From TrEMBL:
This is MerR family transcriptional regulator. InterPro entries: DNA-bd_dom_put_sf, MerR-type_HTH_dom, MerR_fam. SMART domains: HTH_MERR (SM00422). The keyword DNA-binding applies. Residues 18-88 form the HTH merR-type domain. PROSITE patterns: HTH_MERR_2 (PS50937). The keyword DNA-binding applies. It comes from Stutzerimonas zhaodongensis. Gene3D superfamilies: 1.10.1660.10. GO terms for molecular function: DNA binding; DNA-binding transcription factor activity. It holds the Pfam family MerR_1. Keywords: DNA-binding.
Length: 118
């Protein structure tokens, strides 16, 4: 598992529509029970639930989890502080999510360029 300070080293988010809790756990370096707990603490985090209460996260959920992870593990926020930051600074949160999305797209485009060169 990655050290909390290495958020930039998190794996690239694949171009899928839905992710299982196990996949999100690996993509965000957070254990599944922590993800379930965060769902209770952060109302914005609301994955789709299907048969048997199986959770399916979308890309924006994964980005939000990475942002929550950053607030808690890197910036030292408490759960309450992170919750307040997530709900109070939505414009800033959107900017952070867009930056993460742009970084992700750049990585994917560089991969495509590398494949095309070979």
């Amino acid at each position: 598992m990655l050290e909390p300070s290495h958020n930039d080293e998190l794996p690239t988010i694949p171009g899928k529509r839905y992710f299982t809790i196990g996949e999100v756990s690996e993509l965000c370096a957070v254990k599944p029970h922590v993800l379930r707990y965060w769902e209770q603490e952060f109302p914005q985090l609301n994955p789709v639930k299907r048969r048997g209460n199986r959770r399916y996260y979308q890309r924006q959920d994964v980005l939000m989890i990475r942002q929550i992870r950053s607030l808690l593990y890197e910036q030292g926020f408490t759960i309450g502080g992170a919750r307040q930051r997530m709900s109070g600074d939505e414009a800033r949160d959107d900017t952070t999510q867009y930056k993460q999305l742009i970084r992700q797209m750049i990585t994917e485009l560089e991969d495509v360029l590398h494949v095309l060169k070979n």
